[in-house]
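Our consortium's second objective concerns turning raw sequence data into structural hypotheses that experimental partners can test. To show how far this objective has progressed, the report includes one record in full. It was chosen at random from the queue rather than selected for favorable results. The single chain below, 135 residues long, was entered without modification.
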Amino acid sequence: MTNLRHATLTWSHQMVFSGGETGGPSIPIDGDAAAGPSPMLLLLLAAGSCTGSDIVSILEKMRVELRGLTIDVTGTRREEQPRRYVALHFRFRLSGAGLDRSRAQRAIDLSLEKYCSVVHTLAPDLALTHELVLE
């Protein structure tokens, strides 16, 4: 796997773009959040799906039979420009056979502290919090 990634965005109209990796699937991105998710919402979705992928992989290695995983991500943005995220809060809801609080928390911690490249790409002063709900 190469360390180089390439994305292409094509402007459609107003604030709407279509984008994806060259030769791969494309998604709509809308600065006004009407025809598709906004860039800032996509950043929340990227952070959530990155941690989710890590958690699925880690729990699989722990031999947990995951039945459900829902991640709610809330981002707090600065009032002044640039209006970047200054805090992210994750709410992880998990269910599965062999899943206990200790294993779930370990998978979350490993993702947020070590593995999730999206979270680690964001500003180093980003405040991260999370909660865990076992269902």
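The partners drew two points from this record. The first strand starts at residue 7 and ends at 13. The radius of gyration is 17 Å. Both points have been shared with the crystallography group to help prioritize constructs.
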